[in-house]
Write a structure and sequence with these properties.
Elements lengths: L5 E11 L2 E9 L2 E3 L9 E10 L1 E6 L3 E2 L2 E2 L2 H13 L2 E6 L17 E4 L4 E3 L9 E3 L4 H11 L3 E5 L1 E4 L4 E4 L3 H13 L3 E6 L5 H6 L4 E4 L8 H7 L2 E3 L2 H4 L2 H8 L4 H12 L1 H11 L18 H10 L4 H6 L3 H7 L12 E4 L15 E4 L2 E2 L2
């Protein structure tokens, strides 16, 4: 080992909220806090180092009209990597991205399989579109295909109602979530509206994406059941445009989206203040570009989450939630280095100085 090239990261290494060190070493792609003896080739990187950023709601392999070719998916993953995102929870994709696992130069992906939606109640080409009688079977299928997560579409516009409405009856959701848990998978769900949340949470769901419909009445239930949220505020910013585009045909839906958008920051701050875990996700893929993780962290701060907690939501806290290491002794060296302290100003995240993935400086 002493004959191998090593990377020396020095300055300030932010291992956790109360653990800041002066340096770390990378030997054979892994982190060490002990200087290796006799190293012949040492490359030094200076600055403020953080664990590789996490985007906990991202869609590699998904385009505006459904699955994309591998070369497009590669560009998506590279855009995330250039932004410092080195761990992705892929919250639903119709593409098989297992080939990414063999690439040491691409972010690591935790997959939730393909979205599971009600027939004609989601974006065309994205999801398995099924009826409630088949929900358990499809959840079992995606639990086996994924990496410990399953993604449901909990609500969407009901054209007969002209507004957002729950996708699934309570008994189907209960049975499906129980089956996922039996298979060792956690379940998350896309939810914009208020009226889809209680049944999902009381049925044992683990996480809610977007969660714009979270109300003061529902917050204690989320806390009691330990449900996390991934608000995707950079996606919620698109609501006014969506409302304008659909207002002529669905005025109730458009007005509802505008209300959810108007209170988005209050919703997230109330959740955080109550103790609901909040994590960073961008909803990149589909219609949003990749590489937006810094913008989402800044949005959480705008909502009133303290900067250090917003950083945790994309670094050590998010990694612990997903069961992946941070800057731990012996862990794969996935880290991002900045010129100045991101804890003082999270906008620093938008300009990584160096990105190190599996011990190699890739950017």
């Amino acid at each position: 080992m002493s004959d191998h090239a090593v990377l020396h990261v020095k300055g300030r290494v932010v291992v956790g909220p109360e653990d800041v060190r002066d340096e770390l070493w990378v030997v054979d792609g892994r982190i060490s806090y002990d200087r290796p003896g006799g190293a012949r080739d040492v490359r030094t990187v200076e600055g403020w180092a953080l664990p590789g950023l996490v985007d906990a709601h991202c869609h590699v392999g998904l385009g505006a009209h459904g699955p994309v070719e591998p070369d497009v998916a590669e560009k998506q993953a590279l855009a995330d990597r250039e932004a410092g995102t080195l761990l992705i929870r892929d919250a639903g994709s119709p593409s098989d991205t297992r080939w990414v696992d063999a690439r040491d130069d691409l972010p690591k992906i935790i997959r939730a399989g393909r979205h599971i939606a009600r027939t004609r109640r989601y974006l065309r080409g994205y999801a398995h579109e099924i009826e409630p009688a088949d929900l358990v079977a499809y959840v079992a299928r995606e639990a086996r295909r994924g990496d410990g997560w399953v993604k449901l579409v909990g609500d969407w516009i009901d054209r007969e109602v002209g507004d957002l409405a729950p996708s699934w009856p309570r008994d189907a959701v209960e049975a499906a979530i129980a089956e996922a848990h039996r298979l060792g998978a956690r379940v998350t769900a896309h939810c914009f509206a208020e009226n889809s949340l209680r049944d999902l949470v009381e049925s044992g769901i683990d996480c809610v994406e977007h969660a714009t419909g979270l109300t003061d009445e529902l917050i204690p239930l989320f806390v009691e059941r330990g449900v996390t949220i991934v608000p995707t505020l950079v996606n919620i910013a698109t609501f006014p445009g969506l409302a304008a585009g659909g207002e002529a045909k669905f005025p109730r839906w458009a007005a509802h989206l505008r209300r959810l958008h108007a209170r988005r920051y209050d919703t997230v701050r109330a959740a955080y203040d109550a103790g609901i875990p909040v994590f960073v996700g961008t909803d990149a893929g589909g219609t949003l570009p990749h590489g937006l993780v810094a913008a989402e962290v800044a949005e959480l701060v705008t909502a009133g989450i303290p900067p250090l907690e917003a950083l945790s939501a994309t670094t050590w806290g998010a990694r612990a939630w997903l069961g992946r290491p941070g800057l731990d002794e012996g862990a794969p060296a996935d880290l991002v280095v900045y010129d100045t302290d991101p804890r003082a100003d999270v906008r620093v995240l938008a300009a990584p100085r160096r990105v190190v993935l599996n011990g190699t400086v890739v950017s």
